[in-house]
Specification:
By secondary structure, the chain is α/β, with parallel strands linked by helices. The chain has three domains: 147 residues, no CATH class; 159 residues, Trna Endonuclease, Chain: A, domain 1 (3-Layer(aba) Sandwich); 27 residues. Helices cover 56% and strands 13% of the residues. It has a six-stranded mixed β-sheet, sandwiched between helices. Helix 13 crosses helix 14. The protein is elongated, with a radius of gyration of 24 Å. The N terminus is likely disordered.
């Protein structure tokens, strides 16, 4: 970032906060625009797929019809990618979701077409499809991030995962329910490209450099305030690793980063941070601050006992950080191969 403190009439940290807030607002606006565009495109593709089904256009005798339809449509709409293969995909799209849960159809209608093709290629059921569609919309995943989520079996993992927090005891019922929707019990930080163990400060530094990607992983509504945020009280200083504000929950969110496994004493430290935040920085119209302890691994029983008597709302989440080099190479090799095959198929179709 090209800024000079001498040219700014405000503190650098205040400017950083303003910049991150502006970025979050713009990203949210871009996401809303994308939803609107994707919804219209999906509706058009749905109707074309429905027409092909109702007209009983099947592979074999229908190949010539679809090929001619593609030629005529591409002449009129050259930028829509209306190849014969795509037209058949539209029919698959209609057949996949016709008569299914309306919530699923509304969710997939907001996805980019390439995301829909990816989910359909994985033969996911309605529940898994709804999960991946919602996560994509909420976190702004591109196709690669969606692919990684599916490969990591994120849907299956979250089914087996219980909530590791005390929100139901420390927050009003509606806010607790919303907080459980906002916060995950596990996060994928593979985008940091870590292939060997690192220290906590290096993890924080990497997250700072990729803060936009980290905000996307956290989900919509988060505004980044700062890292190593200083809380001064009674002549002593405490530092919160990362501090956010969530617009929907209307509260500050403190994140404490831990390279190792969860330890019960981390909960006491977070409880103290939240007391300071509520006393020193919480606004009159804001809700209680929430703390998230982000660690490499956790023992659910240990977490439950550690949070049992804590008076502040605290959650514990783990993360996947180190992505084995071999796994990355395999994913890239497969994607390059598939991309080459798709290009070759498109080339043949357009001849």
């Amino acid at each position: 970032m090209n800024t000079d403190n001498k040219q700014l009439p405000i503190k650098r940290e205040d400017y950083e906060s303003m910049l991150q807030h502006a970025i979050a607002v713009i990203e949210h606006a871009r996401l809303e625009i994308a939803k609107h565009i994707n919804g219209n495109i999906a509706s058009a593709y749905w109707e074309i797929g429905k027409m092909l089904q109702e007209r009983k256009v099947e592979s074999g005798h229908g190949e010539g019809v679809v090929r001619q339809l593609s030629v005529d449509l591409k002449e009129r709409y050259p930028k829509m990618g209306l190849s014969p293969r795509q037209l058949w995909n539209m029919k698959k799209f209609y057949l996949r979701y016709a008569g299914h849960d309306e919530k699923v159809l509304r969710a997939v209608a907001l996805l980019p077409w390439s995301h829909n093709l990816l989910i359909m290629s994985k033969n996911k059921n309605d529940e898994a499809t709804l999960f991946y569609a919602k996560e994509t919309i909420a976190k702004g995943w591109n196709r690669d991030l969606l692919l990684n989520a599916i490969k990591l079996n994120m849907y299956e993992s979250q089914l087996a995962t219980k909530v590791d927090n005390n929100f139901s005891r420390t927050l009003p019922m509606e806010q607790a329910r919303y907080a459980n929707e906002v916060f995950s019990s596990s996060y994928n930080l593979g985008f940091l490209g870590v292939t060997s163990p690192i220290l906590e400060l290096e993890l924080e530094d990497r997250l700072m450099k990729a803060i936009t990607r980290f905000l996307m992983e956290l989900g919509n509504g988060f505004t980044f305030i700062g890292n190593q945020h200083v809380l001064e009280y009674n002549g002593k200083e405490s530092k919160v690793d990362m501090l956010f504000f969530h617009r929907g929950l209307r509260c500050l969110v403190a994140v404490d980063l831990k390279i190792g496994a969860f330890k019960p004493e981390y909960a006491g430290k977070m409880n103290y941070y939240l007391s300071l935040l509520d006393r020193l920085e919480r606004g009159a119209d804001e809700n209680r601050s929430i703390g998230i302890i982000l660690c490499a691994e956790k023992d659910r029983v240990e977490v439950e006992l550690a949070l049992e008597d804590m008076g502040k709302p605290i959650g514990v989440a783990d993360y996947q950080l180190i992505v084995p080099k071999k796994e990355l190479e395999d994913v890239l090799t497969n994607e390059i191969r598939k991309f080459g095959e798709e290009k070759e198929n498109i080339r043949k179709e357009t001849k």
